[in-house]
Structure formats: structure tokens, C-alpha cells
Design brief:
60% helix; alpha+beta
Length: 171
């Protein structure tokens, strides 16, 4: 019982020092708190709702999901680099080619059409496509791992909450 009392007193001291630091007070300045702190919320929380909320609101999960989407788009772009492409352009110029007389003015229309069909790139595009697929799978696995870690974190926090609640009711 004595070690537990010492642990609670140390936690109280750390909490006081953290509070003073938060307020910008010197750590050696004494202060007192008055009033009574009771249970603020006695509502029961459902673990499933807490877990869903945590998974929906975690920034690292959203970032990893965005990285997975970007990997999927990169893979699509690389896959389409093997497809043929067509480019077209037109230029119209009104000019005086000789520059000496006024009656030499005339229009000139130039049309350009280009067609590109990659036949063989030394398997470079295939390697890039496979690398993009691996990166996308890595991002998907990272999302799953973070989701599992968040679920464990929520379960741990919920168990701590339940224990603290039972301890406060017993006291």
C-alpha cells in the first residue's frame, strides 16, 4: 500500500508541475486549488462506437489512405504510358514574306499531327508498373497496420477508463 501511495503522490506532483508549465508559472511558485472535482460524465461508452470514431478521425489513417490513392493513380498513369498517343496543332500567320511591297501580304496555315506508339521500351514501363503496384500494396498494408494499432490503442484507453471509473466509484 505504501508504494502505491508514493506513486500517487509522485503523479500528483507531476500533474501540478505540468499545470504550472501550461500556465507559464514558475515551477517553484506555490499555488492552491479549491473546490471539488467529481465525475463529469457518467455515460457509458460503447467500444465499437469509440473505435469507429477513432478510425474515422485519425489524420495518419487519412494520410495513408491518400498515399494509397496516389499510388493507384500513379500505377494507372504508368500503365497508360504504353498506349498510343496523338498530338495535333495548328498555326496561322498573316505576314509579308518579302517585306518590300504592300501587296505581298498573305496568310499561312500550318497543321501538325503527331502519332506515337511505344513499341518497345526495354521493359522499363513494365518495371515502373510493378514498382507502382508494390508501392500501392505497401500503402494498403500500412493503412491496415495503423488501423489495427488504433484499435488496440482504443481498447487500451477504454480499459483504463473503465478501471478508473470503477476505482472512483469504489472510493
Amino acid at each position: 500500500l505504501k508504494p502505491r501511495l508514493t506513486e500517487v503522490e509522485n503523479n500528483l506532483l507531476l500533474a501540478r508541475n505540468g499545470f504550472q508549465m501550461l500556465l507559464g508559472m514558475p515551477l517553484d511558485q506555490a499555488f492552491g486549488l479549491t473546490g471539488e472535482l467529481g465525475l463529469i460524465d457518467t455515460a457509458d461508452y460503447e467500444l465499437a462506437n469509440l473505435n469507429d470514431s477513432a478510425l474515422a478521425n485519425r489524420a495518419e489513417i487519412r494520410n495513408l489512405e491518400n498515399a494509397e490513392k496516389m499510388g493507384r493513380l500513379a500505377r494507372t498513369m504508368i500503365g497508360r504510358s504504353n498506349l498510343p498517343s496523338i498530338a495535333a496543332g495548328a498555326t496561322y500567320a498573316y505576314k509579308n514574306p518579302a517585306g518590300l511591297t504592300d501587296n505581298g501580304w498573305g496568310g499561312n496555315l500550318t497543321l501538325n499531327v503527331g502519332f506515337n506508339w511505344p513499341l518497345f521500351s526495354g521493359f522499363k514501363n513494365l518495371a515502373r508498373y510493378r514498382a507502382a503496384t508494390v508501392n500501392m500494396k505497401r500503402a494498403r498494408l500500412a493503412v491496415e497496420e495503423v488501423r489495427k494499432a488504433v484499435t488496440i490503442e482504443v481498447k487500451n484507453a477504454y480499459a483504463t477508463y473503465q478501471a478508473a471509473r470503477e476505482a472512483s466509484v469504489a472510493a
